[in-house]
Amino acid sequence: MDLARRDREYLRELAEHHVGGHLKVAPEHTDPDVLDLMKKPLSTDYVEFDKAFRAASRRVGKRQYTVPYFIASHPESGLYEMIDLALFLKRNGYRPDQVQDFMPSPFDIAACMYHTGRDPMTAKPVTVTKGLRNRKMQKALLQFFKPENYFEVRKALEHIGRQDLIGSGCDSLIPDRPPQEALNKKGERPTNHFQNKSLVITFAD
C-alpha cells in the first residue's frame, strides 16, 4: 500500500482492471510499536491508500472499497493498543467482517517473539499476551459493534478504566445498556454448555 498509493498510473490500472468491487488489504494494526515489530508502515498510510484507491475507482467510473484486515493479540498488543485500534475503526467508519486472533506460526519472527518474549532483531523485551481471557477481549474489541461481543468489550473497557467509552458519546464503543441480542446470547451459553456435556455416573461395588 505504501508504494501503490504513490503511483497514480498503477492505482488506475488496479482499480480499472484488477478489482471486483472490494480490495482486501492488511494494515494489521494501528499501534506504532506493534507495526514496527511487523515491519509495516504507520496506520496513516492505510488511510491515505484507502482515499487514493477510492479516488482512482471513481475516475474509472467504479464504486469500489478496500476491506481492511486486522489482527488481535500480536506481540506488543495489549488491551490499551486494541482499544486505540477500535477507536480508529469507529472514527473512520470501518467495520471489519473478518478478524484474526494471532497464532504463532513456525519460522515466523512473531512466533519467536511469542515464545521468547523478545524481539530477535534487537533482543529487547516484548509484551506477549497468552491468557485466553485477555485474548478474547482483544478479539472482541476488533468487532466492538457486534451485539454478541458487548460483554467482552465492556469487560475490557472496565478492566483498564475506560468507562468513558461506554455510553452515547461520539467516541463510545458500546452503549450503557446491553442490546437485546447480547442478553439473548449471554442467556444461551449455560444451556448450550450443559447440552454439550455428557453425564457419566459410576457406581461402586
Architecture overview:
Helix content is 45%, strand content 9%. With 205 residues, the protein is mainly alpha-helical. The protein has one domain: Transcription Regulator spoIIAA (2-Layer Sandwich). Strand 2, helix 4 and strand 3 (99-101) form a beta-alpha-beta unit. It is globular.
Topology:
Layout: H1 8-17, E1 22-28, H2 32-38, H3 43-59, E2 65-72, H4 79-92, E3 99-101, H5 109-116, H6 132-142, H7 150-159, H8 180-195
Parallel strand pairs: 1-2, 2-3
CATH first level: Alpha Beta
- Protein structure class: mainly alpha
Our count of domains comes out at 1
Content of β-strand: 5-15%
Shape: globular
Terminal Cα span? 71 Å
Radius of gyration over C-alpha positions, nearest whole angstrom: 21 Å
Share of residues in helices: 40-55%
The helix/strand order is: HEHHEHEHHHH
Major beta sheet, strand line-up: 1-2-3
Largest sheet: 3 strands, parallel
| CATH architectural designation | 2-Layer Sandwich
Spans of 5+ residues with little confidence (pLDDT < 50)?
Answer: 190-205
- Find the count of extended strands (DSSP E, 2+ residues): 3
Q: How many helices does DSSP assign?
A: 8
Average residue pLDDT: 90
CATH fold field value:
Transcription Regulator spoIIAA
Summarize this entry quickly:
With 205 residues, the protein is mainly alpha-helical. It has eight helices and three strands, in the order H-E-H-H-E-H-E-H-H-H-H.
Q: What descriptors fit this protein?
A:
3-stranded parallel sheet, Transcription Regulator spoIIAA, mainly alpha, 205 residues, 8 helices, globular, disordered C terminus, 45% helix
